[in-house]
Design brief:
There is one protein chain. This protein is mainly beta. 1% of the residues lie in helices and 53% in strands. The strands form 6 sheets. The protein has a 6-stranded parallel β-sheet, with no helix packed on it. The radius of gyration is 28 Å and the shape is elongated. It starts with 20 loop residues before the first strand and ends with a strand.
Length: 351
């Protein structure tokens, strides 16, 4: 029956890496040729790429995935991306006045930030040959803030601007790997072994391969708990279900990782579920002491103050009611944690 508390504080140190800008003046080159880049390396996720030269065509191996920080095509310059690969821009794409971007050979450009073509707006994104796909997941600034479909030229180009308010236009249903119609969850089997039932429904195209279900206790750090392959049924609407047999005791967060061909992925919105199994209460009795009553056997009780200092900790067996001397506790806010056979639960109280 030890009364023991341990406070562990972790400090993390980070190293800040200076991002470099990469440019090239070489025409018709392989993107992965480090010798053509001013930064001395193939552009990486920390690099900004700026095009200051005209007539540049980039190629690379089929099904490659290349990630950079941003791409800027300056005034009157043009860039062609040729080949069946995906260029991911984690920041923004900027097309300056009369700049142009051409996608061919099945190339895909995927902008996680925004698409900015506001400076005079006389720019173009086109497809040639077998064409390509242009997807901006953030918002846009095009010629003063209104989308101009004539910016996107060429019958072989699929384009989509996806904003927080919804898809702006183009071929979004063809480009996006999966269109999530809903994603929801609920607790079940509360009287026996509680679990969470997750359900979702999608409109999917051939790009979509599988889901990974991720779970978190704090809504920040997620872990993979299951993989669900794409349904083999040819239905236009596909329904999925998964049961999590081990949700967290208090709050559990879930999200879907939607994975395409080549390994590129998107995340669904996060849903949070609060456990309804709060089968215990704590209060001050007439004598001023704390009482904890539980519907199930109490195994452990711990009391911490508002700054996380542990003031009380004890283990028990075969009891459902505990009285705790409150003399050592001044008035204030406390976190009381109780472990029962159902799991570990927390309450914030003020006495």
């Amino acid at each position: 029956m030890g009364k023991f508390c341990t406070l562990l504080i972790l400090f993390f140190c980070g190293i800040k890496i200076q991002a470099q800008t990469c440019t090239t003046n070489t025409n018709s080159v392989s993107w992965t040729n480090s010798g053509i880049w001013s930064c001395g390396n193939v552009p990486l996720a920390a690099n900004d790429v700026v095009i200051n030269h005209t007539g540049i065509t980039f190629t690379t191996a089929n099904n490659a995935i290349i990630t950079i920080k941003s791409l800027t095509i300056n005034n009157n310059r043009d860039l062609t991306i040729n080949g069946n690969f995906r260029l991911i821009i984690t920041g923004n794409l900027v097309l300056d006045n009369q700049a142009s971007l051409i996608l061919s050979g099945g190339a895909t450009i995927d902008i996680l930030g925004s698409f900015n073509a506001a400076n005079n707006g006389n720019v173009s994104v086109g497809g040639s040959g077998t064409g390509g796909s242009f997807l901006s997941r953030g918002c846009y600034t095009i010629g003063g803030g209104t989308p101009k479909p004539n910016i996107f030229v060429g019958s072989n180009l699929k384009w989509c601007i996806q904003c927080v308010s919804g898809n702006v236009g183009g071929n979004c249903n063809q480009i996006l790997p999966v269109r999530l119609l809903f994603f929801k969850g609920a607790f079940q089997n509360l009287s026996t072994k509680p679990s969470v039932s997750l359900e979702w429904s999608v409109l999917a195209n051939s790009e979509f391969q599988y889901f990974e279900i991720e779970r978190s206790e704090d809504g920040i750090k997620f872990e993979k708990i299951e993989r669900i392959n794409k349904s083999a049924l040819g239905n236009p609407v596909q329904n999925y279900q998964f049961t999590d047999e081990s949700p967290f005791p208090n709050q559990t967060y879930y999200r879907l990782k939607e994975v395409e061909n080549g390994g590129f992925f998107n995340y669904s919105r996060i849903i949070g579920l609060s456990s309804p199994i709060q089968d215990w209460v704590v209060w001050k009795n007439i004598n001023g002491n704390w009482e904890v009553n539980s519907q199930k056997t109490i195994e452990e009780i711990r009391i911490q103050n508002s700054v996380g200092k542990c003031l009380f900790e004890n283990t028990y067996s075969n009891v459902t009611k505990i009285t705790i001397n409150s003399n050592p506790f001044p008035s204030g806010i406390y976190i009381v944690s109780v472990r029962t056979i159902s799991g570990l639960f927390f309450k914030k109280v003020q006495f």
